[in-house]
Amino acid sequence: MQIKNDIMWRVGVCYTLIVLLAFCVVSRVVYLQVFEGDDWRGRAQSISKKDITVYANRGDICAADGRLLASSIPYYELRMDFQAMGLTNDIFKKNVDSLAICLSRFFGDKSSSAYRRQLWDAKFHSTRNRYVLINQRKVNYNELKQIKTFPLFRLSSNKGGLICLQESKRVQPHINLASRTIGYLNKGNGNELIGKVGLEGLFENELKGIDGISMMQKMSGKWLPVNQADPKDGNDIITTIDVNFQDVAQSALLQQLQAYHADHGSAILMEVETGAIKAIANLGLDSETNKYEEIYNYAIGEATEPGSTFKLASIMALLEDGYVQPTDSIDTGNGIHRFYKDKMRDSHVGGYGMISVQEAFEKSSNVGISKLVNQHYKDKPRDFINRLSAFRLNKTLDLDIKGEGRPKIKYPGEEGWSGISLPWMSIGYEVQQTPLQTLCFYNAIANNGKMMKPIFVHEIKYHGKVLKHFDEEVLKNSLCSRETLRKVKSMLEGVVLRGTATNLRNSSYSIAGKTGTAQIADKNKGYGHKVYQASFAGYFPADAPKYSCVVVINSPDKKKGFYGNQVAGPVFKTIADKVYAMTYAMHPPKQDEQICEIKVPISLNGNKDDLDIVFKELNVSIDDREVYGDWVLTSRQDSIIKYKNRIINNHLVPNVKGMGIQDALYILENAGLKVKINGFGSVKKQSLNPGSNFRSGDLIYIELS
Fold this sequence. Notes:
Layout: H1 2-34, H2 37-48, E1 49-54, E2 61-62, E3 68-80, H3 89-107, H4 112-124, E4 132-133, H5 141-147, H6 157-160, E5 162-171, H7 179-182, E6 184-187, E7 193-197, H8 198-202, H9 204-208, E8 212-219, E9 222-229, E10 236-239, H10 243-259, E11 264-271, E12 277-285, E13 292-293, H11 298-301, H12 311-320, E14 329-331, E15 336-339, E16 342-345, E17 354-356, H13 357-362, H14 366-377, H15 381-390, E18 408-409, H16 421-426, E19 431-432, H17 435-446, E20 451-452, E21 457-462, E22 465-469, E23 474-476, H18 482-497, E24 512-520, E25 531-540, E26 547-554, H19 564-567, H20 569-582, E27 606-607, H21 608-617, E28 621-623, E29 631-637, E30 640-645, H22 661-670, E31 674-678, E32 683-686, E33 699-704
Parallel strand pairs: 2-10, 28-30, 31-33
Antiparallel strand pairs: 1-8, 2-3, 3-4, 3-5, 6-7, 8-9, 10-21, 11-12, 11-26, 12-13, 14-17, 15-16, 18-19, 20-23, 21-22, 24-25, 25-26, 27-29, 29-30, 32-33
Helix pairs in contact: 3-4, 10-20, 12-14, 12-18
Transmembrane segments: 12-31
Domain PASTA: 647-705
Protein name: PASTA domain-containing protein
């Protein structure tokens, strides 16, 4: 009986414990399901499922003709997983020596033994061997294809351990051409956007596109895609920039900056009728590299005292208010006139004496213009300032691109106004204008008094489809009367025909404009340091204006020259000459012009199949009997085009002379070379000699004519 009771007691205790344990388990399950269920289900999903962002392709920024100004190119960072499941010690040891040799030859930065030591240590002597960086340099797609043929890397990622991380690099194919206007994006360490510059920043929302999401699920130890929301590519921005005109403006400005050892300068070309900016060049001397680069958008952002280009506004005010006529006389005396304690001087020693108002403008007489303005507005300066306001010289242009400098036109009674403000303002001092604001004013004269807002973008496209078109915008329909307009146009032409800019005159077409030379303040040193700014603003052809242009060059070497006609004028003329030569529509028709019939066109060298298509369309006969390759040299013989073989050996530097840029880039980049381009047209020179040896990734410069 005692034994039975003992057994029953023990069974009861065990039963009670089991019941209590079951109750605890059930309670815990209920608690987890009800109170912590969402949290644990999320954790489970995070282990078996994950979302991967699929980045959208950023849109391109293009020139008016569709040529790329900014585009995104994929680059790859090379890393290696030394603990990949299939990368056994035997496979690694068998391939490591060959891989080290290939890496050394490809990157050329260290010996094969150094690479072997790096790989060996990462595999056997490091605790951080799952995500090891192979080389700091990122590689392009063609280079990546070559790397994937290396020993070990040619195996699957599970066996070879190669990890390729793609990122897009924003590049501007035409280096330094309008780069500040095209712009860029500043990003922080977390890839967040912290700054916007130019069109890249302005159209960030249109360019960036919409990222997609790929849902991955772990199945049998592998991550596999189960659902994906595809990304939407960014839109393309079609600008008003003409690459050919931009190259001309950039080259002409650079040459003059170098010749006069100037600090910086800008040049802008605008289409008169629409306000479209066809070229905008900004170059400043970089103190670190001692080279001229696009370090700031001076054309848009730098407001300075314009000097004599401002005299156009003064003479327009006098004409519009009926105070003077171009034939009236003004006594400039010996070229020195005193306003209170300050002396006004003409650049011409001895002065011009008694001259007409038109001559005072054409010869840019400071004394003549300032005496006229002071004589008629001294007792009513507000009338003069109101005229300047009516010309819209006191307002910004409301540009879409950020960073526009503010114009400065003082008003009587404001701080800084004095008895000499009126005469000095009349010749472009005690006022401030940016180069683009000055250009808009001159462009309005060329456009029969209608002031246009500068526009930089023509269209927004998505995969070739136009989403938005930007129309021209009028800032002011009429600056002045037609009579005043007619008179100032004659004066502006007279500056080039008889005045301070006769060095710009040519027999092919007429130019109208105004020189400007201003002594500007040198930062904190004031005016005593004698820093000059040379400028020229105008339009061409003067009789039927198509384009307007302004050139401003800051701080030229005084010993070499600093006058507007001497420093800025030649840049204007170079731009105008080349734009005129490239724009056949501006050329006057020639009487009895003989047109020579050329049955067989001149052709670039290039790809045989592409040339065949073109010549077939033109009904041109081809002699290709000796050709057996894809690339050919072309020559014109009587009424046919004759092909000759051009041998392209990918192990030697290809010969691309005479080719168009498209074919040349295709051949050079497929050979593994990095290409930098200068100029336009066909290939004239290449920096690496054809047939010479090279290493993948070497840089080759090609010059186009």
